[in-house]
Amino acid sequence: MEANGTRLDEQRFPGRQGRIVFAYLTVHRGRAVPRGELAEVIWGEDLPATWEKALRVLMTKLRPLLEECGIDRTTGLTSAFGCYTLTLPADTWIDVEAAKAAIKRADAAVAAGDLDEARAHASAAAGLSRPNFLPGEDGTWVEEQRRDLREILVQALECLRDASLAAQDFGDAVRHAAEIIELEPFRESSYRALMEAHVGAGNPAEALRVYERCRRFLADELGTYPSAESEAVYLEILRSSSGTSAGVDRVEDAPVESEVLLPLDDEPPRRGRRRVGALVTATVLVAVAVVAAGLAFSSRDKHPLVIRANSLVRLDPETFEPKQVIPIGPKADEIVFAGGYVWVSHASLHNGAAFGATGDRTLTRVDPSTGEERPVSNGLAPCGITRDPPTGGVWAANCYGRRAGDMVVRINARTLEFEKRRSVPARTGYYRGIVWGGGSLWVADPSFAKGEYGAKVEGRGLTQFDLRNPAAPQGSIQLRRHATALAWSDENGGDLWMTNFNDGSVTHRNVWTGKTKTFDDVASGPAAVVVQDDAVWVADWDIPRVVRLPAVGSGPPHSVSLPVTKALAAGVVQLAANSSGVWAALPEDHAVWRIDPRNNHPRRIGVEYAPWGVAVGDDGIWVALRGR
C-alpha cells in the first residue's frame, strides 16, 4: 500500500491474517462486509473459538496503518451492525481492478481496429495480472482471485498475440503464443496461432514441431487427436513443399546410417481434407521439405536402432524401449529439455585441480526433429544449467569462461545468443547449483569435491535474480550451509531445496518467510535433487540409491536402494522426474533406473554405455551416454 509518499510493505501488516483481511476489504471497499464473511475468508470453516476477538484485534492493528497513509482511522475503517466497511479515497488505484479495466480497454481497442492502443492496454493488463496474488496464502477466496487474474493474463496475451500477428510482428507473436500454451496447454487455438506465427517468421519447421507437440500432448493427456482445424493447418504447411519434389526426393532416397538420427516409431498423423490457406506463404522452404520427407519416410520403413557410444537416446516411458538415437560429443553429463530442444553439457561435472580455465566444458543444443547438434560458443564454459520456462531457453552458469567470466547467462533457444547476463560472486569450484522458480533465478556458490582445494571452506551464498522485475536489485542470501544442487517446489508459496554434497544434508528454504528446515545424514553424497508432486528425490553420488523426502508435511527420509548385482565405486549422478516415475542415471551400472513413486519400486533399464545425463522430454526420456 502506498499513499502520500508513504509505502507500507507486507511485513508491516499484522501477519498473514492481516494481509488477507485488508486485501478482501480493499477489493470490496465501500461495502459493509459481515464479520462472519471475513472470518470465513481468514480461517475457512475451522473457526477458532475466539474468532470474534481475534478479528477485532486485527482491525485495531490495521487502523494505524491507514492513518500512516493519510486516511482517517475513524472514517477509513468503520464497524457497525456486525459489519466492517473500508472507505478509501475516490482516486484510489488497485492493481486487480486496474488489470480488469485494462483488458476491457484492450478488447474495445481491438473492436475499433486500433492495434497500437490494444497492445498498450493488453501489455498493462498482462503486467498487472502476472504476479502471484498474495503469495504464500491459500483459501477459497484467494484461489478465486488467482483464477480471475490468470484468465485476465491469458486474455491479455491472446490480445497481444493477435495484434502482433496482424502487425506482422511475428517474433512477438511467437513469444506471446508460447506463453499461452504454457498457461493453458489444452487450448488448441493457441497451438494453431503459434504455428501461424512461426510460418510468418519464416520458420515452418518450427510450426510442424508445434503441431507434433500438440498431438503428443493430447494423446498422452486425453487419448485423443487434434481437431480437424488444427490438422488442416498442419497439412497445409506440408503441402507448401509440393513444388520442390527434387529436394524431397534427394532426402527420401538418401541412405540412412543406423547410428545417426533414426525414424520415430510413432503412428503417422491422420490425413485431413480441409485446407486453410491463410497461414502459408508462397515461398517453398527447404526446411519444410526436409521435415515432410522425414515424416513420410518414418511412415514407410522402420530400421532397428543401433545405440552407439557418445549418443543421446530417447526412451519410451512406458515400454522403456529406445525410440531415437542421436550422436553427440564426448563427456556428456547434465542434460535438460527446454524449448523443444535437448541441451547437453559436456564435462560440467568434472572436478580436479586442472580446472582453472575453460578446458573441455561445452554446451550443445540438439534438435530432436532433425538430429542437428549446435554448440553454444561465446566463450561459455558451463558448470550448471537449468530451464527458463517463460522463454523456452536455458540459463547456464559460467565458471571458467575466458570472455564471459563468472556469471549466469540466458541463452535463446532458437538463435543461441546470450539474451541476458548476470554477474555472480567468483569463487573456486567446479559446479554451481542453479534453478528457475517463482519468477526468479537462484544461483548457489560453486561446489568442489571432498578434500579438494585444501582446507578451504565452500561458500554459503545464494544469489536471487528477480526476472519479473528487471529493475529489482540482485538479492544475496547467506545460508547456514553450502548448497550444492538446487530444486524448486511451488508448495507453500515457494520452497527451494538444496543438497550439501560434503556434509550429507538436504535443506529446504521457504523463499517468502526465509524459514529453513534441514534433514541431516540424508545420503553419503547428496547430489542431484528433483521435486515431483509431494515428494523430493535426492541422488546419492557415492552409492546406488535415491532418497525420498516429503515435499509437504513432515516425515523421515526414505532410502530407495537400487539392487545392482555387483559392487560399484560410485552411485547416481543425475535425476529426472515426471508423473510416471523418477529416472536415475547410474553410469557404473550401465543402466537407467526407473522408480515408481506409488510404491518406491525400482526397475532397471540396461544400456550398453554409461548413462550420465537424464531428462524428461515432451515425448520420452532422454539419456546421454558416454563412451567407454
Coarse morphology: globular
CATH topology of the largest domain: Methylamine Dehydrogenase, Chain H
Would you state the CATH class of the largest domain? Mainly Beta
Radius of gyration of CA atoms, rounded to a whole number = 27 Å
Domain tally: 3
Tell how many strands the DSSP assignment holds: 33
Order of strands, widest sheet: 7-6-33-32
Q: In DSSP terms, counting alpha (H) and pi (I) runs of 4 or more, how many helices?
A: 13
The computed structural class is: alpha+beta
Q: Average pLDDT value?
A: 80
CATH superfamily of the largest domain: YVTN repeat-like/Quinoprotein amine dehydrogenase
Portion in strands: 25-35%
N- to C-terminal distance? 62 Å
Largest sheet: 4 strands, antiparallel
Any chance you could write out the topology, listing elements then pairs?
Layout: E1 2-3, E2 6-7, H1 15-27, E3 33-34, H2 35-43, H3 51-68, H4 73-76, E4 77-80, E5 83-86, H5 95-112, H6 115-129, H7 140-166, H8 170-183, H9 188-200, H10 204-222, H11 228-239, H12 245-253, H13 286-300, E6 311-315, E7 322-327, E8 332-338, E9 341-346, E10 362-366, E11 373-376, E12 382-388, E13 393-398, E14 407-411, E15 418-423, E16 434-437, E17 440-444, E18 461-466, E19 475-478, E20 486-489, E21 495-500, E22 505-510, E23 516-519, E24 526-532, E25 535-540, E26 545-550, E27 558-561, E28 574-578, E29 581-586, E30 591-596, E31 601-606, E32 610-616, E33 621-626
Helix pairs in contact: 1-3, 5-6, 5-7, 6-7, 7-8, 7-9, 8-9, 9-10, 9-11, 10-11, 12-13
